[in-house]
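Exercise 3.2. Students should predict the tertiary structure of the chain below and write it as structure tokens, then compare their answer with the key that follows.

Predict this chain's 3D structure.
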Amino acid sequence: MIPAADSHGAGARRLLRLAAVQKVLRSHPSPISPRDMSAEAAASSVADEQADALHQVMAGWHPADVAYVLERLPLEQRRLVWQQVPAGQDGEILLEVTDAVRESLIADMDRSEILEAVEPLDADELADLVEDLPEAVLPELMASLDVDERQQVQAALSYRDDQVGALMEFEMVAIGEQLSLGEALAELRKLEALPSQTDKLFIVNRSRVLTGVLSLERLLLGDPGQIVNAVMALDVNTFRAEDDIYDVAQAFERYDLISAPVVDATGRLVGRLTVDAIVDVIRAEGESEARNRGGLREEEDIFASVWKSVQNRWAWLAVNLVTAFIASRVIGLFEGAIEKLVALATLMPIVAGIGGNSGNQTITMIVRALALDQITPGQLRRLWGKELKVALVNGVVWGGVIGLVAWGLYRNPALGLVMTAAMTLNLLLAAFAGVGIPMLMARWGRDPALGSSVLITALTDSGGFFIFLGLATLFLM
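Answer key:
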């Protein structure tokens, strides 16, 4: 096992561990049978050596580090490493890997292996995996849970993925408001361990209604004789299981929360939300935005089969094909003008390219603002006004620059003016579409990031070609 040196950060440590696993895999290639051993015996010997080496290398690793390595191995090597993961870590590793990689790992497990892997998981963790498990396993899995666990899993599954209830934990520390600090501390000492991310205790009355929170600092440093309800904090950030998780993520960031209680409509404590779940939400949202902007339908395992990758990418490629055909037809409308003035063919990609870049800048800003609830679809006109003014200034300045360049290169002042005008108009079109596309998609209840960069590029390409060649036809022919 490679020791984790203090001088290396987490990223460097993970790279070292990935390199260690790859070294083991390379050092045990498919065996060549020696004279005194059959091919089958040789293969078995090498496989055993490889398994022992992988066990030694991965001993003591955190599940997140194993998940990191699995995500970066081709399918065949991933299966070999997955078969040698430390005992009892299977379920935690399945929680850590991406959805696409999890699918490939579960596909390599039989019914008994799946049940054994998920057995140690808490109800909230189990709920995260249930949707990815084979349906044939679910009846036996649910039957193996006690009544409370089964109810908790069913409760978590009743919420959408973007609701707090889907991510809340049921393991938490709640104490009565009439206890003294000394009695509360004694209650804590009865526990085997505190739930992770515990920075405060939830204070409840006899009906389990949340009445306040007590920080661990106050508990440890306060007078043991003080009554909890006299020193607890009453101003509590509470959330409902039906709340939107992205709104809650912003509250966690705004108030620097580590954990927060989740209550029902009557104020009864039903669970808690922790910062590690919020970090996962923020990361997943960022990845989803990047994927949607590129037109990918879903998360893709980088080592997935050719067919699965084709299925994931074909839809927006088909859209691209259509838009590219439209752009080509726009150019075709002005073949005569291009034949007469060849300079148009060399200059028109500049107009389209700058328009696409400007539109993508605007879309990125608007999509991000929508995600952070900084703007609403009702502010469409105001945002259009601002972005069109920005585009006008940029168009006049940079269009003027490229216009002067065109004038100097081709000794044609009229061409320079056409270039300036076309650049300005295409930037205005990019600004209009860059605001309008995501805002209108949000108003219609669609993800504003979905294919936005594809759409804006198609629009500014076709529009840029039409504007530039149209102006050239009017004023230069």
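Discussion points: Residues 34 and 42 are 7 Å apart (CA to CA). The radius of gyration is 30 Å.
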